[in-house]
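>> Question from a student workshop board

For tomorrow's exercise we were told to take the sequence and the ligand below, predict the bound structure, and bring the output to class. My setup keeps failing. Could a helper post the expected result so I can at least see what it should look like? The ligand is iron/sulfur cluster.
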Amino acid sequence: MTGKRAVAGGGLGEGIPVARGDLHDRREAALARLAEVKAPLLEASDRAARELRSCAGCDAHCCRAGCNSMRVSRLEALALARRLSEPDLAPRVPEILRRAREEIRLRGLCADSDATYDCPLLSGEGRCLVHGPAQPSGCLTFRPVPDGGCDHDLRLFHRHYGKVERLDRRVFGRRSRPLPIPLALVNVLPLHRAVR
Ligand code: SF4
Ligand code: SF4
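>> Workshop helper replied:
Here is what the output should look like for this input. Compare the format with yours to find the bug.
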């Protein structure tokens, strides 16, 4: 298995209709479109779990330091914050933030670092807390592969990530860049109530 490394963006996506309007409208339209763009990734991830091998029983080393240096776009971070505001996960946010800050300190995470880290969205049972439409694109395309082990489906990732990047730029501009998940969460979670 190779590590769940941050994967480079896939260039320009296809034309993506996003409503013109104020920031709120653009953000809401982009979040809705992001869920559509990720739907085939989620479907492929769940199909691999059914047909190849389930992650059940694995220690989820792909989400831990040594393997995991996943980054998320700013819009993906916002989708994570939305998911974490739902009633089943909201009570866990203080603990998730504490773990995110601890990882940043421990691994020296910054925008330019490619250090690996323990993902603060991994449950104590080794389960991704956000598996579903809000799960980052890079995570949805990392999974068991037919010849054994686990790896990135880079073809699928690159086919879709250009669209994710382009949506991000539509809302946040060209200076937006993907960040390691702990940094992205620390940036977006405290602000999330203010921008909803
Ligand atoms: S993708 Fe592979 S390494 Fe990661 S949790 Fe699933 S089975 Fe384990
Ligand atoms: S978001 Fe989920 S799948 Fe991705 S690194 Fe974190 S725990 Fe693993």
